[in-house]
């Protein structure tokens, strides 16, 4: 059926692509946000699709579009949908509702196994894989990859679609006029989970372990996982911040977290795992004889 999509509405989808990051070939999640009226799209890549990257993909696309689409079409991703109910009804996740209530857009979920109901964006995942990411590109980081993708999306604005007299950039202005304004308050893309620090002062999040000060061993904590950082809160205070790892079964120590314990157990100094490869300032180096 030929369609005439209204200005200001959007569709979104995730797909997989192969890229090289810091010399390692990996599968990445490619998030595509499209505006069917103007055919403008924004693409971003992440280590995988999850709550925090789903949110970040939206937030980044709003900055590129210059506004917030009034309605999004989705498939039934578990990031947004807890349970598919009768007809168009869905039980939604807390984090999707937080995203939606912050930006004030509405949603439409496709019928199960009916991705064609958001057909505009469905074809764009393959389009970007073939046109932006072949042959397999190499980048030092996901930040560098996303800067490249943003430039390619910007260049696409000067294209004129068959059957139209004006380029996409001009049609985007009509989309923007129908969009919602971007809120002045910043949205935090993150996943919150509850955990307990073990006897080694380690907290598990997303299959990795992160340290907290030894005073919080055996304590209940709140973990706030973002795209780039993991923050750990105990007793209402931020007690640890680590760089986010997207690998599995890794352990990350902050040596300072264990210094209080070493005061009571100095015999562990030579074999303390958290202190391995700790790069201290030169003033801590031992004095050489005669100096």
Quickly list its features.
single chain, 291 residues, alpha/beta, Nucleotidyltransferase, domain 5, 6-stranded mixed beta sheet, 4-stranded antiparallel beta sheet, 6 helices, 15 strands, 30% strand
General description of the model:
There is one protein chain. The protein is an alpha/beta fold. It folds into two domains: 9-178, Nucleotidyltransferase, domain 5 (2-Layer Sandwich); 190-278, no CATH class. Helices cover 24% and strands 30% of the residues. It contains six helices and 15 strands. Strand 13 (229-234) and strand 14 (237-243) form a beta hairpin. It is elongated, with a radius of gyration of 23 Å. The protein starts with 8 loop residues before the first strand and ends in a 27-residue tail after the last helix.
Mean pLDDT: 91
The CATH architecture classification of the largest domain is 2-Layer Sandwich
CATH class descriptor name of the largest domain: Alpha Beta
Number of strands: 15
**Class from helix and strand fractions:** alpha/beta
CATH topology of the largest domain: Nucleotidyltransferase, domain 5
Helix proportion range: 10-25%
Q: How many helices in DSSP terms?
A: 6
Write the SSE topology.
Elements: E1 9-21, E2 24-35, E3 40-46, H1 51-65, E4 71-74, E5 81-84, E6 90-92, H2 94-103, E7 106-109, H3 119-132, E8 138-139, H4 142-156, H5 168-178, E9 190-196, E10 202-205, E11 208-211, E12 220-226, E13 229-234, E14 237-243, E15 251-252, H6 259-264
Parallel strand pairs: 1-4, 1-8, 4-7, 11-15
Antiparallel strand pairs: 1-2, 2-3, 5-6, 9-12, 10-11, 12-13, 13-14
């Amino acid at each position: 059926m030929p369609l005439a999509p209204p200005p200001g509405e959007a569709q979104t989808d995730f797909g997989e692509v192969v890229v090289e990051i810091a010399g390692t070939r990996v599968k990445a999640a490619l998030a595509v946000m499209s505006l069917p009226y103007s055919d403008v799209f924004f693409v971003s890549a992440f280590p995988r699709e999850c709550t925090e990257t789903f949110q970040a993909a939206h937030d980044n696309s709003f900055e590129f579009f210059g506004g917030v689409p009034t309605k999004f079409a989705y498939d039934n991703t578990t990031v947004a949908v807890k349970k598919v109910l009768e007809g168009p009804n869905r039980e939604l996740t807390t984090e999707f509702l937080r995203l939606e209530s912050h930006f004030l857009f509405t949603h439409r979920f496709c019928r199960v196994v009916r991705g064609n109901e958001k057909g505009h964006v469905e074809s764009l995942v393959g389009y970007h894989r073939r046109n932006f990411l072949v042959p397999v590109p190499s980048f030092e980081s996901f930040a560098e990859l996303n800067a490249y993708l943003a430039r390619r999306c910007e260049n696409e604005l000067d294209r004129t679609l068959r059957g139209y007299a004006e380029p996409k950039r001009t049609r985007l202005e009509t989309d923007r006029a129908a969009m919602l304004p971007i809120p002045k308050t910043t949205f935090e893309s993150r996943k919150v989970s509850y955990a307990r620090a073990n006897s080694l002062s380690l907290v598990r999040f997303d299959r990795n372990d992160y340290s907290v000060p030894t005073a919080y061993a055996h304590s209940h904590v709140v973990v706030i996982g973002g795209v780039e950082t993991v923050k750990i809160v105990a007793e209402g205070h931020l007690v640890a911040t680590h760089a986010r790892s997207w690998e599995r079964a890794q352990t990350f120590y902050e040596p300072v977290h264990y210094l209080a314990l070493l005061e009571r157990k100095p015999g562990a100094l030579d074999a303390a795992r958290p202190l391995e490869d700790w790069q201290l300032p030169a003033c801590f180096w031992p004095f050489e004889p005669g100096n």
